[in-house]
What we know:
Blueprint: H1 3-12, H2 18-30, E1 34-35, E2 40-44, H3 47-61, E3 66-69, E4 75-78, H4 82-91, H5 115-128, E5 129-131, E6 140-144, H6 147-159, E7 165-169, E8 172-177, H7 180-190, H8 193-241, H9 251-262, H10 268-274, H11 281-300
Antiparallel strand pairs: 1-2, 2-4, 3-4, 5-6, 6-8, 7-8
Zinc ion is lined by residues 17, 19-20, 23, 109, 111, 115-116, 119.
Amino acid sequence: MSFSSDVKTELTGLIPSACCTKAEAFGMLIFGRAFSLSEISLMTEIQAVAEHYSTSIRDLTGVTPELTCSKAGNYKINIPTRAERLKILEYFGYTGKEITLRVNLSNLEQTNDDCCSKAFLRGAFLVCGSVTDPQKDYHIEFSVTKAKLCEDLMQIIGDLGLRCKKIIRSNSYVVYAKEAESIEDYIGTMGANNAFLEVMQTRAMKDIKNQINRRSNFESANLSRSIEAGLKQVAIIEEILSKIKLSDMTKDLSELCSLRLENPDISLDELGKMMNPELSRSAVSRRFKKLEKIAAELKTR
Length: 301
Ligand SMILES: [Zn+2]
């Protein structure tokens, strides 16, 4: 099972309070495949969602939906008669004659903890939502076929304090969020606590891995800086040696020059230890300063 179906299956197992049961069912119905006098239906690959949709409609309105499953494992839930469809529409405050379908907010009770808005979002997610496995990516979306319904959904999402964006993708309005924190917020708001913990743990693990990567990038950056410095010194020495002979230099400088030419990639510390007598890092550095000065003087001659 995908992460998305895990989340959905977890959500169908919640036991909402009475007010929220209606709000959740309403979310499933209005964002399902069809919600009109000519058709009320849902298509889903997830058995738990199919059953939850049917049971909610039956418990609330007394109408028993028709549930079929194709060989490929696609569930279709359908309300067979017009009279039954009208009964469901009326239960949620619709006549079936609406020109533009909008979210009837009277189905969502205004409570302090926004329980019904959260339940409504949960219902919407069950039928038109999906969430990517946090191991791969952070992405949650709701795919809505009607522009006005998409607007209403975005309004409710915003009122819940969640962030979202919208894109149009092949005749659908897609409401989505991408940041890890947002995915956690959505999943937490909808009430999928197990999935919430899973996303949080995955994020924590990713953060640790990133930190380790950043550190080793930093170390290799340091390493390449010292190689770069070494190569620069080699260039200076070669420049000097194009004008004067190594044997014409003082002993301490000539020794350093030949050691550097033989070991272009080692650090100043290591270079100092190879000198006879041994030199500190800063002493080596001072000698390179001297060499730089010589090179500069030779240039002006
Ligand atoms: Zn409620």
